[in-house]
Each structure stands twice: as C-alpha cells, then as structure tokens.
C-alpha cells in the first residue's frame, strides 16, 4: 500500500508540523506501508494549463505522478481567506477529473480561527467527491493554540490524528478488498 | 453526400481505424519493434481491404507509445498495398501542421490510391506536440479554426488567396497536385462533447465523432447538437455525413470478448492516458444500448443497427487494435466482420 501525505501550503509551519506527526505515526504503526510526504513548500509546481498530467515535467510531474500512484492520500491544509490555499487547489487542477477513483482521501486542517470549521465540509470535500475519492468522513481540526514551537501540544489533537491514520489505512484496505472481490466476479 | 463519396443506397459504411499506438501486449509484456508495428498496420489494412471493409484510417500522435507520427507516409504504403478500401487519417492534427503541406500529401495519396483518400482533421487530445512542433498551446483553439478553414479553402479553390495569423499569406497560390476528382472529403474530428460538435455544425462539414463508452443515447445528443448548429447556419444536414468511431471486439461470446479485450484497453490507457479503464464501466460495454461494440457477432450486429437507427450515421469505424492486440486476434476479428457482420449490416441498411 502506498500513502501520500500532502502538505498543501507554502506558508507557515503548522500544517507541516502536523503532517510530520501524521507521517511518523503512520510509519510507526504500519511499517510495511510506503509513505511519501509531499510538502508543496519544497516543490516548484507550475499552474495547471489543462494538459494531461503525464505531460508535465520536473517537480510538477513528480507531485502529480506520486499522487496518482498512491492508494490513499492524507491532505493537510491551512485555511487562507476563508478557503483552501491556491497551492492545494492547483494540485487538484493538475489532476484528471477522476484522479481519486479507487483512492481513499483523509484530511486535517490547521486553522487560525474556529469559525473556519465548516470550510472543509463546504469547500474541500465537494472537490474530493467530484474527483471520485472515498473520503474518511471525520477530519481533524487543529487550531493555533494546539501548537507550541513546532509541536502539537494538545493530546486530543494527537489522539485524533492517530485515529485518522488508522481510519485511512482501515478504509483503504476495506475498499481495496471490496473492489478486488467485485472485479474477480466479472471474470474478465 | 456525393461530394463526400458516400452512396447511402449501398448501406451503412463500415470501417476500421488505428491510432497507430505502439504498446506492449499486456499478456506477454512484449512490444514489437516500431518497424514491425508499422508493417502490422499495413497488413491490417490489406486484410480489411480483402474482407470488403469500406474504410481504413490511421491516426497521428506525437508521444511515447505511438508509431505513426508520419501517418500520411504510412497511408501511402497502405494505398499501394490495397485496392478498393477508402483510406484516411484519423485524425490529422491540422493545428500544428501547414495546411498546404497536408493538402499536398493527401492529394498525392488520392492519386496514388486512384481516388480513395480522405482527411479527418482534428486538434489533438494531447498537447505535447505543441512544444515539439513549435506552437503555443494558448493558440489551441484559434490554430485549429484558422488552419482548418485554410484546408477547406484549398480543397474548394484551385487558386488560393488567403491571409491569417499563423501562416504566411497565400497570393494566387496553386496547391498541387489536385486530387483525382477535384476535391477530397474532409471531415472534422469531434471528441464526443456537444460543444465541439456545434462548431463542426457551424462550419458545415462532415463530423467524425469518437466515443469511448457509455449509453449511445448520450452521443445522440452530440449528433443532434451538430445537426441543429448546421441547420442554424443554413446547411442541409441531409448532405452532411456523420461517422462514429469507437471500441470494437467480436468473439464467440460477450464474456470472451470482454476477457480478450479488457487487459489491452486497461493497460494501454494506463500508459497513454495515465489512468486505466474501470472494470465496472467496461462490463457495461456489452449492454445492447452501450455504444461500445463488444460482444458476439450477432450482438454486435444488433448494436450497430441500433446505433445506426438512433444516430442516422453514414459510417461506423471500429478500433480493435489498441493496446498491443496481437495480430492473430486482429485477423480473427476481420474474418468475423467480413463473413458475418458486414453482410448483415449491409443487408439491413442497403436502399434504406
């Protein structure tokens, strides 16, 4: 199983801090899973110009190809101007319409204000649904006060991330098994 | 229809097309050489000609896993190797070509083949060739429209006066040689969406509609949109042929057809498009109302006739060879088409 942790912003450190914890938790609990962390702050990704994803080059190609090859994706995102960051939206725009078919996607969000709680529900999930993702329904909402000097200090958040990691793996295994059983029935 | 060399009293035309893909056979993992693949395509056309099939066409794709970038050259070899079958591109990417050179090539092809050549002009579903051939992707739409118009003008006028944005102007230019009977049938390739079909309708040119899978009724909407747009611009749709193009595979049973074809489609699309073909969608391909013509010969006959009734199309062309389909299976399919499918289709559509 291949899982990608996608840290969706070039700004700040909180999303990356939470993603580090998430990826480490995944590696510790599931050492056989191949986990790749993609922090968009570290890549020079071009804006989507509508071409097939195989036709991009360099960092852009690496990012989209790695996502396309994953069985599951954990998205970590901050909230900018009451929405997801443009860097993250651009990754969706680079991918084909059905990019998340047969993939599980789970999410955590690092927000400056609790008033942004519904942004994942209202803005991120509809995109993932359109792109055919199987979504882990419960996401983790992390606030500024849960961090102190690049560490998460709120146990509740840590417990929630641990459960998010577990749910992502369990759902990916489950959907894979269901799909394989269904495909075997077709007999072609 | 005469202008497009289509005689409806002879029934629905049946053709074969290849994108010219050059992919490994997923069952063996082996890929033949480009040399071998090109000869396979020429032999494939020869067999189609011998089986009485009406039409054979070759595509142009400038990317990995394709071998017929110089499709006009391949068609020229096919012209020499065949006798009666119509030959065409499917499609020529006119956006990134010089229409004068395209016309020279295809008019020559028409003379070599003694009046059997056609052009299907498209604008590419993939865009790598814009970089390769030195065009700006931002001009995608305008390049196609302008160059297509010029191609049509060259076809209609022996002496051309023209100026545009993407090519040097033509002053009293004679584009030679002329085709055997003065002009070539030129079609516009449409990828199945109504928006693209409407533009073909506005231009008043025959439409080549490619379709992957899904209910035939969805593609009927595209054809309706095309005819409506053509009528709106004052064209007579009874003079504008429509051709449909899609996956085809005949075997003893629909289950066997799915089994034989699926790995080629799924693995081939993964390589050329980056995503496979979901089994669930492919399984629906055998439904009588699905536009994919996969099944037993009898099921396919019924599907093609159903689509013909629904679409009022003048030609259907079949894609069988995608994804490294081995030659023996192609031969078998041509044999089934020639002995079972073609006679039945002609019988039911002749003099309709």
Question: Describe it for me?
Answer:
The complex is a heterodimer of chains A (188) and B (352). Chain A is 43% helix and 18% strand. Chain A has 188 residues and is of the alpha/beta class. In chain A, strands 1, 2, 3, 4, 5 and 6 form a six-stranded parallel β-sheet that branches. The model of chain A has no long low-confidence stretch (mean pLDDT 97). By secondary structure, chain B is an alpha/beta fold. Chain B has a single domain (2-349), classed as Alpha-Beta Barrel (TIM Barrel), CATH 3.20.20. Chain B is 44% helix and 16% strand. In chain B, strands 1-2-3-5-8-9-10-12 form an eight-stranded parallel barrel, surrounded by eight helices. A two-stranded antiparallel ribbon of chain B has the order 6-7. In chain B, strand 1, helix 1 and strand 2 form a beta-alpha-beta unit. In chain B, helix 1 (34-50) crosses helix 2 (71-81), helix 1 (34-50) packs parallel to helix 11 and helix 10 crosses helix 11 (327-349). The two termini of chain B are 15 Å apart. The mean pLDDT of chain B is 96. The A-B interface holds A 49-55, 68, 96, 98-99, 101-102, 182-183, 186-188 and B 126-128, 137, 255, 258-259, 262, 273-275, 278-280, 282-283.
């Amino acid at each position: 199983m291949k899982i990608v942790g996608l840290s969706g912003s070039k700004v700040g450190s909180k999303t990356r801090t939470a993603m580090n914890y998430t990826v480490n938790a995944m590696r510790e609990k599931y050492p056989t899973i191949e986990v790749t962390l993609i922090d968009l702050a570290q890549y020079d990704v071009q804006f989507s110009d509508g071409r097939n994803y195989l036709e991009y080059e360099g960092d852009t190609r690496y990012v989209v190809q790695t996502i396309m090859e994953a069985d599951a994706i954990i998205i970590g995102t901050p909230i900018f101007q009451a929405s997801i960051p443009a860097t993250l939206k651009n990754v969706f725009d680079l991918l084909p319409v059905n990019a998340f078919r047969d993939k599980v996607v789970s999410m955590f969000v690092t927000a400056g204000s609790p008033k942004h709680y519904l942004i994942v529900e209202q803005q991120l999930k509809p995109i993932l649904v359109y792109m055919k993702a199987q979504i882990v329904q419960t996401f983790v909402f992390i606030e500024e006060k849960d961090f102190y000097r690049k560490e998460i200090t709120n146990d509740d958040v840590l417990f929630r991330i641990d459960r998010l990691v577990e749910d992502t793996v369990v759902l990916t295994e489950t959907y894979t098994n269901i799909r394989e059983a269904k495909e075997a029935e077709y007999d072609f | 229809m005469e202008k497009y060399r289509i005689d409806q009293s002879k029934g629905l035309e049946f053709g074969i097309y290849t994108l010219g893909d050059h992919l490994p056979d997923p069952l063996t993992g082996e890929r033949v050489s480009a040399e071998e693949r090109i000869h396979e395509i020429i032999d494939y056309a020869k067999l189609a000609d011998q089986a009485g099939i009406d039409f054979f066409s070759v595509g142009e794709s400038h990317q990995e896993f394709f071998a017929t970038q110089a499709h006009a050259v391949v068609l020229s070899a096919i012209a020499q190797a065949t006798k009666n079958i119509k030959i065409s591109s499917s499609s020529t990417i006119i956006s990134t070509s010089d229409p004068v050179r395209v016309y020279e090539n295809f008019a020559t092809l028409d003379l070599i083949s003694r009046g059997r050549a056609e052009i299907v002009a498209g604008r590419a579903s993939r865009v790598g060739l814009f970089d390769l051939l030195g065009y700006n992707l931002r001009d995608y739409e305008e390049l196609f429209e302008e160059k297509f118009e010029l191609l049509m003008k060259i076809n209609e006028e022996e002496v051309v006066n023209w100026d545009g944005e993407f090519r040097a102007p033509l002053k009293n230019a004679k584009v030679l040689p002329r085709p055997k009977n003065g002009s070539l049938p030129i079609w516009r390739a449409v990828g199945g969406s109504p928006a693209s079909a409407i533009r073909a309708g506005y231009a008043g040119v025959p439409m080549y509609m490619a379709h992957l899978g899904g209910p035939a009724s969805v593609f009927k909407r595209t054809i309706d949109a095309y005819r409506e747009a053509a009528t709106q611009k004052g064209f007579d749709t009874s003079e504008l042929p429509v051709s449909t193009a899609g996956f085809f595979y005949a075997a003893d049973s629909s289950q066997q057809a799915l089994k034989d074809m699926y790995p080629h489609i799924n693995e081939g699309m993964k390589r050329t498009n980056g995503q496979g073909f979901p089994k669930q969608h492919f399984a629906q391909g055998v439904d009588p109302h699905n536009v994919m013509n996969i099944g037993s010969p009898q099921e396919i006959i019924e599907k093609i006739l159903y689509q013909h009734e629904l679409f009022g199309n003048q030609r259907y062309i079949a894609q069988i060879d995608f994804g490294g389909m081995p030659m023996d299976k192609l031969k078998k399919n041509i044999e089934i088409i020639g002995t079972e499918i073609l006679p039945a289709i002609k019988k039911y559509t002749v003099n309709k």
